[in-house]
Design goal:
The protein is mainly alpha-helical. Among the domains are: 13-95, no CATH class; 214-283, no CATH class; 337-444; 451-618, Reverse transcriptase/Diguanylate cyclase domain (Alpha-Beta Plaits), CATH 3.30.70.270. It has 22 helices and seven strands. It has helices at residues 13-26, 33-44, 52-62, 68-83, 89-118, 127-141, 147-159, 162-166, 171-183, 188-191, 195-224, 232-246, 251-296, 304-314, 320-385, 389-443, 456-473, 487-494, 496-513, 537-553, 580-596, 605-618, and strands at residues 477-484, 519-524, 527-533, 556-558, 561-563, 567-573, 602-604. The two termini are 71 Å apart.
Length: 619
């Protein structure tokens, strides 16, 4: 078999192995046994052999998750497969076997008790009523692991009425008792509660109490108490109620617990109202502060982007995703601006140093000029007092020497000042370039950091710009809202990193496929908005359909596994005078109609209107 040639290829196994290693190195695939086997099979033309882990993972996904026990069992196995901690496998198997064995051992006792009490004669308890009681147990607990215990409890409830049966000593007494009951208008059935039904009612009541306690425990422990961090008194009261709920069984105790819970919730509600007022006041204060800063730094273009983002957030209802995205963008921009700001400060420092040098050189030049003036005056006095030609020649030579020295000093100062002037020009150019970079970074807060397209803030500004252009030129503006199909399932199955990569894949495909004048923005989550200037409805449909085809051609790879990413889209056309929200809403409704009618479709506002008319006609 080692020398046999592989199916569907003329290559020898050794050649296939070399090609496999080469391809893994070129594609930078992790050198794991599974990856090697998969690539080897692809080259050899062999069918993919599913590993045990893959088969188990696929089987687990197909199992029903309609019960808590099933979910826990499946989660345990999925955790084991993901961690590959095979040391815990024997313990898990032994635990499950013990549970099955324990459950199997309970069945003989349950059946034995049922048979023993089934034929027993009980006053007011007929075979028909026992049958009805058994049917109720089977209906309510058929899929419950505690079914044997429920049957045993029902059987014991039948036997609990043995004492009442012993009172009936003879048929005569029974008849007389029956006659008395009939004379008094009561039947034995009304005097004696049905034992099976009583046991079921007690069991159901106990189960309801336990369920209520569990729900209250979850609500307080994981819902309310963690949200009372700033209110220690309320936390203490909530924990006291939690302890009280665990010990509450009697109706009067439940009534007391309900009153205390109501009192606690009223106090929490008052705190919520107060916190809402505080939040409103803080937002107003922040808005006032931001508006004031905007006025003070109106000339600093590099701050405009950050201020605009904060103004957008506080002027509309707070959204967690919007705040998180803005925070991420601002952090990156502020970090880069900090680096550039340091360079700008250094450039300004150099400029100040140059000015100081210039003033110093002017002072030195002034001193040199003053000294030369005094020497000239001194030479003038000496010249008026001498007649000897030799002395006059010496004086002239000294004068010429001083003149040359002064000229040299002036030239040196001129060179220094020229150097400083060039340095000033370079510094000014650097300052201008740094300020431009700061301004460009400020504009980046309008960019979605994950996909590189416009974010909500950038979309709003682009919308305003394109609407104004459409109204000036009386032209069409197509608006497209598209949403990735089955994105939640993609996230759940492959992880959020894969979901982010899918968003980037779609954004890159859109940017590569759209016209230069078209605008793309991430609207939120897995939704994108396209603005198509000078585009009628039919052309908009053609553009988006072409984009769908292009997306299907470009396979999205996850761990070298090809995943098909599709989207559903809704298209509307801007009408003069309407708001952004209005035209987006129509595109949104058309997109949801596309999703509800099969996904991976493109529908327009006209399709939406036709669907409404058809629905009205049908009604």
């Amino acid at each position: 078999m080692a020398n046999s040639k592989s199916r569907n290829t003329s290559l020898e196994p050794a050649e296939i192995a070399r090609e496999t290693i080469k391809r893994m190195a070129m594609q930078r695939i992790a050198p794991t046994p599974d990856n090697y086997q998969r690539i080897y099979n692809e080259i050899a033309g062999l069918p993919h052999i599913e590993s045990l882990e893959e088969a188990m993972a696929r089987a687990l996904k197909q199992l029903p998750r309609d019960r808590v026990e099933n979910i826990k069992w499946i989660s345990g196995w999925e955790k084991l497969l993901s961690s590959r901690n095979w040391k815990s496998l024997p313990l898990m198997l032994v635990s499950e076997m013990e549970q099955k064995v324990a459950q199997a051992k309970r069945w003989p006792d349950a059946i034995r008790d049922l048979l023993r009490n089934w034929d027993g004669k009980r006053s007011g308890l007929t075979q028909q009523r026992k049958k009805e009681a058994l049917e109720r147990v089977l209906i309510n607990f058929a899929n419950d692991p505690s079914l044997p215990e429920k049957i045993q409890a029902m059987s014991r409830s039948w036997s609990e009425y043995k004492a009442s049966e012993d009172v009936v000593l003879s048929g005569t007494e029974n008849e007389s008792q029956a006659g008395g009951d009939q004379a008094s208008g009561h039947s034995p059935e009304s005097n004696n509660a049905l034992p099976g039904q009583s046991g079921l009612r007690v069991a159901a009541l106990q189960e309801s109490i336990r369920t209520a306690q569990d729900m209250l425990h979850l609500s307080l422990q994981h819902g309310l108490i963690p949200r009372l961090d700033g209110y220690p008194e309320l936390q203490v009261d909530a924990r006291n109620l939690l302890k009280l709920a665990e010990k509450t069984y009697k109706p009067e105790d439940w009534q007391l617990l309900a009153k205390q819970l109501k009192s606690l919730f009223v106090r929490v509600e008052l705190i919520g109202v107060e916190e809402e007022a505080i939040k409103h006041d803080l937002l107003s204060l922040l808005k006032l502060l931001i508006d004031n800063i905007s006025e003070l730094v109106s000339d600093d273009q590099w701050l405009r982007g950050q201020i605009a983002v904060v103004q957008t957030i506080i002027s509309s209802p707070l959204e967690k995703d919007l705040i998180k995205d803005a925070e991420k963008s601002l952090k990156e921009v502020i970090f880069k601006q900090g680096s550039l700001k340091h360079g700008l400060a250094e450039a300004k420092h150099n400029f100040k140093h140059m000015v100081a040098t210039f003033i110093e050189r002017l002072g030195t030049l002034s001193d040199s000029t003053g000294s030369y003036q005094r020497k000239v005056e001194n030479y003038h006095e000496q010249l008026s007092n001498i007649d000897d030609i030799v002395q006059i020649n010496a004086l002239v030579e000294n004068l010429m020497q001083d003149t040359r020295e002064m000229q040299t000093g002036i030239l040196r100062s001129q060179d220094i000042l020229n150097e400083e002037r060039d340095r000033v020009l370079a510094t000014e150019e650097r300052m201008r370039r740094l300020e431009m970079e700061l301004t460009e970074l400020s504009e980046k807060v309008r960019i979605d950091q994950l996909t590189g397209v416009l974010n909500r803030r950038g979309l709003e500004e682009a919308f305003v710009r394109e609407i104004a252009r459409a109204e000036r030129g009386d032209s069409h503006l197509g608006v497209v809202l598209l949403d990735i199909d089955n994105f939640k399932r993609l996230n759940d199955q492959y992880g959020h990193d894969t979901g982010d990569a899918a968003l980037q894949h779609l954004a890159n495909t859109i940017k590569d496929s759209m016209r230069p004048t078209d605008i793309v923005a991430r609207f939120g989550g897995e939704e994108f908005v396209l603005l198509l200037p000078d585009t009628e409805m039919n052309d908009s449909v053609a553009i988006v359909t072409r984009l769908q085809r292009e997306l299907t051609k470009r396979f999205f790879l996850h761990n070298n596994e090809r995943l098909l990413v599709t989207f559903s889209a809704g298209i509307s056309s801007y009408k003069a005078g309407e708001q952004q929200e209005t035209v987006l809403h129509r595109a949104d409704r058309a997109m949801y109609l596309a999703k509800s009618t099969g996904k991976n479709r493109v529908l327009t506002e006209d399709d939406l209107e036709r669907a409404r008319n058809n629905l009205s006609s049908a009604v």
